[in-house]
Amino acid sequence: MATAVLPAPAGIGRAEQFSTRVAFFIAGFGGAVWAGLVPFAKTRAGLEAGGLGLLLLAFGIGSIVAMPLAGALAGKYGCRRVLIAASLLVCIALPALATASSPMLLAAALFVLGAGVGSVDCVVNIQAVIVERAAGRALMSGFHGLFSVGGIVGAAGCAGILSLGASPVAVSLAAIAFTAAMLAWAAPHFLAFGGDTSGPAFALPRGVVLFIGILCFIVFLTEGAILDWSAVFLTFTRGADPAHAGFGYAAFATTMTIGRLSGDAIVRRVSRTTIILAGALLAASGLLVATLVPSAVAAMIGFALVGAGCSNIVPVLYSAIGKQTLMPESVAVPAVTTLGYAGILLGPASIGFIAHVASLPAAFLIIAVLLIGVAVSGRFLKA
Q1: What's the average model confidence in pLDDT over 261-265?
Q2: CA–CA separation, 175 and 275 (whole Å)
Q3: Pick the CATH number of 14-189 from 1.20.1410.10, 1.20.1250.20, 1.10.10.10, 4.10.320.10
Q4: In the chain, where does DSSP find H-type helix?
Q5: Whole-angstrom Cα distance, residue 358 to residue 105?
Q6: N or C: less crowded end of the chain, CB within 10 Å?
Q7: CATH superfamily of 207-380
């Protein structure tokens, strides 16, 4: 049965928009701090690459398990309570990740961190849908841009503190203090409700929601591919110096952040279907440049094009969730977010399998074809 799009409740304004941006920032920040602590955890636990890979799965599993529950709790108790609780989970997990030497303890702490970050990411998207609808104008790209900014600040801050000779414990405590300060600033303006609660607490995505989820899966798969494989591609396929291989992901992340922070202004001028069409084609062309032009510089330019192209597709898709009437957002958003995270989890492993059977450039070309499918499919969504 279809559910009506609820009118935006009164009293949602700039303060709620600000709190939404802060929550996106916290989600990006928490994951990035852990990324900076990974080498230390690997050394403490004496893990080889394979063992580390298995350990890192705990983060994704924690996220995927927590998201549907977080959406249901937000629908029942409101976004504010769940966002506060999930942010506190992030704070609880970081010290354990900075000190634990047992792989099992690290996996448990990483599961908790994934549950916290995933819950914040899920519930803040529910809040973002409601806040954007209340504003009556495009805000989603800017909201998601703060996730990217949080990632940059978390990674740079972690690296900066470590470069001063601080310990991982000091980094985790500084991250907790910063997160707590941001949370105290924004929490009073988190929404006390969680959208339409007329539907079931849990439901499998269907219809247009499933369609949106599949498109998100492909875009998140693309992001995961660049995150995990761009440096490998530059080093072993294009012969780049390993010390410079990280510039591929840096180029991708930079253009994605710029694209999201400027995306709302673009969305207000052109239709959302145009954003999906042009963005997916641009991202596909970036992968084609990276794989077909035999140059490390060309590959970095290609990865930058992928970041620019992908930057506003997912925000536009989340806005589309707010327009559909098949499922309430408290159910639809967790379903779509879970599918997206599944793309991040399964994508890199699938690419590794294709690279083993064929080649890494062949895997990137397959993703380019999938992105062309996203471009074609975008016209079926409401503008």
Answers
A1: 95
A2: 35
A3: 1.20.1250.20
A4: 14-45, 49-77, 79-99, 103-135, 140-163, 168-186, 207-232, 247-261, 263-269, 272-292, 296-310, 313-323, 329-357, 360-377
A5: 37
A6: N
A7: MFS general substrate transporter like domains (1.20.1250.20)
**Euclidean distance between CA atoms 111 and 96, whole angstroms:** 11
Burial 207-245 (b: 16+ CB within 10 A, else e): ebbbbbbbbbbbbbbbbbbbbbbbbbbbbebbebeeeeb
- Coil, helix or strand at residue 30: helix
What are the C-alpha distances in Å from 192 to residues 25, 81, 222, 247?
20, 7, 35, 42
The pTM for the full model equals 0.87
Angstrom distance (rounded) from CA 338 to CA 78: 20
Backbone Cα Rg of the chain: 20
Instruction: Please give the backbone phi and psi of residue 167, each rounded to the nearest 5 degrees, phi first.
Output: -85, 165
Q: 382 pLDDT band (50/70/90 cuts)?
A: low
Whether residue 239 is predicted with pLDDT greater than 50 in this model: the reply is yes
Q: How far apart are CA 21 and CA 139, in angstroms?
A: 10
Q: What is the mean pLDDT of residues 215-219?
A: 96
